């Protein structure tokens, strides 16, 4: 497989909510999963959503602390808002820009695998940030949408420079 090009801010596929996967046995979905796993298995990549490679389906892969995996039709079903994390966040679709983004400390996502079997992915800190970030992508959101007003203004000025 070839590594697919990452879509960047300004591409409409990143702002469109993704469709659920209805046929996990299709060759297209199996190829998508292969591409997501290959695409995330690179230094500096924590997660990769299907729409970031131009496919508007609900799927993402992750690469956190040496664990690589994927989930289809993910839904966040638990967030721990008792503790927050407010570290810098970046995105392959917003290259070379990092901004402090408030996220829940813990997150749990449920979905399915290619065999249609249930998948539960959960974690704290970086894994929680990744799960929230990738699920946002599938809803047509970028992490920039989560920034506080002042930081978002600065971020959008930087994004405009990228697009020129």
Automatic annotation (TrEMBL):
Molecular function per GO: metal ion binding; peptide deformylase activity
Stored InterPro entries: Peptide_deformylase, Peptide_deformylase_sf
Active site, renumbered: 134
GO BP, sorted A to Z: translation
Reactions listed under catalytic activity: N-terminal N-formyl-L-methionyl-[peptide] + H2O = N-terminal L-methionyl-[peptide] + formate
Keywords: Hydrolase, Iron, Metal-binding, Protein biosynthesis
Domain of life: Bacteria
Residues bound to Fe cation: 91, 133, 137
Requisite cofactors: Fe(2+)
Main EC class the enzyme belongs to: hydrolase
Function recorded in the entry: Removes the formyl group from the N-terminal Met of newly synthesized proteins. Requires at least a dipeptide for an efficient rate of reaction. N-terminal L-methionine is a prerequisite for activity but the enzyme has broad specificity at other positions.
Family: Belongs to the polypeptide deformylase family.
Protein known as: Peptide deformylase
Source organism: Boudabousia tangfeifanii
